[in-house]
Amino acid sequence: MPIPIADLHCDTAIGLAAGRRLDDPGLQVNLPAMAEAGIGLQVFGCYIPPAVPEGRRFDFASRLLDGLDRELDAFAGHIAVCLSSQDVLDAREDGRIAAVLAVENGDAIENDLGKLERLYARGVRLMTLVHSRSNAWVVSSADKAPAFDGLTRFGEEVVAAMNKLGMIVDVSHAHDEAVRKVLSLSCRPVVASHSCSRAINPVPRNISDELSKGIAAGGGLVGVNIYPGFLDAGYRKESEKAGDLFERLGREEERAGADPAAHFALLRELAVQFHRAMENTPVPLDRYLEHIYRLIDLMGDEHVAFGSDFDGIPDLPSGVTDCRGLRAVQRRLAEAEMPRDTIEKVCWTNFLRVFREACG
Asked: Which CATH number fits domain 5-359: 3.90.550.60, 3.40.50.300, 3.40.1650.10, 3.20.20.140?
């Protein structure tokens, strides 16, 4: 029987809020491709661009959740929102894909724990604390001159509140010192939902060996990102000649304001331009497997998963066009004679365990 796949992060929600449909083949995560790939669980991240004006960020997150609700309701025979690990098992029993709702960027709560509680009430079960720009309470990995030491007192309160509610704390994009503090505070497993190994590609956005071990020690996971710029040091170096994509994105996002459709159009435009600039610097899918093996050797096979970042990255490894690439990864792991129980952990059961321990 094929092993289902759990993917810890995609950015498809912003496309849905912009009017795309969940069965649209122009999205990297779409229902026909998910069925072909054997996706059994997809975490849908609602990305809040740091450039969204203050005072409008919670509303922006709500609009993305509205778009997800609309599409998940429209295709309820194929996919179901899951609030607990039992819901996931029930969805699988019904032959449906499990959808877990997430928010990417703690800006969404606007420094208000009441808004965190409202997101939980709407079904959000994972939150990425920060993105490419530090917020008022947690430092981003992109911050070269942090104003404070990783996490403020309010940041500590957010972690405690997420633990109490039953919401997974996600440290992808967070500064090393912020991750250390989260690991020291959290009483539930922590994830880096869409990151790679810094030992293979030494960029701040990737996870260090030290922090990977800390995540594993707390029972958490690293979901491996499929973006070539995080996978391959040579690609990253070559891409810098075209200018820093994320700095450029930040500048362009200022123009998009609080309009999800404008942000989605911008992401698509930059992806086309960036892919064209990098088409002569291919990265093989085997590089993705290298990060998986490295993290398994370091953390153990119970602490590694997939965290694609589909629909949120400007380029993909050679031969990958959408979420079906994860099934190709699974096949290659089998061809490399990885034990079936390890493949099952990485592809499926590791996230189910963390979801159960963190959310019930």
From this structure: 3.20.20.140
Q: Quote the pTM value.
A: 0.97
**For the segment 227-275, what is each residue's pLDDT rounded down to a tens digit?**
999 999 999 999 887 666 666 666 777 777 789 998 899 889 888 888 8
In the chain, the N- to C-terminal Cα span, in Å, equals: 27
Give me the residue spans of the domains in the chain: 5-359
The overall longest dimension of the chain from CA atoms, in Å, is 52
Exposure string of 201-227, with b = 16+ CB inside 10 Å and e = fewer, is beeebbbeeebbbbbbebbbbbbbbbb
The pLDDT, as a whole number, for residue 256 is 75
**In terms of C-beta density within 10 A (0-12 exposed, 13-18 middle, 19 or more buried), how is residue 17 classed?**
buried
Distances (CA, A) of 243 to 198, 234, 249, 291: 21, 15, 11, 25
The Cβ of residue 328 has, within 10 Å, a number of other Cβ atoms equal to 15
Q: Which two three-digit tokens encode residue 289?
A: 């497997």
Question: Which pLDDT score is estimated for 340?
Answer: 97
CA distance 13 to 3: 25
| Residue from 264, 171, 269, 151 nearest 218 by CA | 171
The whole-chain average pLDDT of the chain stands at 95
Cα(223)–Cα(221) distance, rounded to whole angstroms?
6
Instruction: Please give the Cα distance from 131 to 149 (Å, whole number).
Output: 17
How many CA atoms lie within 13 Å of 276's alpha carbon, on the beta-carbon side? 6
The residues with which 104 forms a beta bridge, in sequence order, are 47, 128
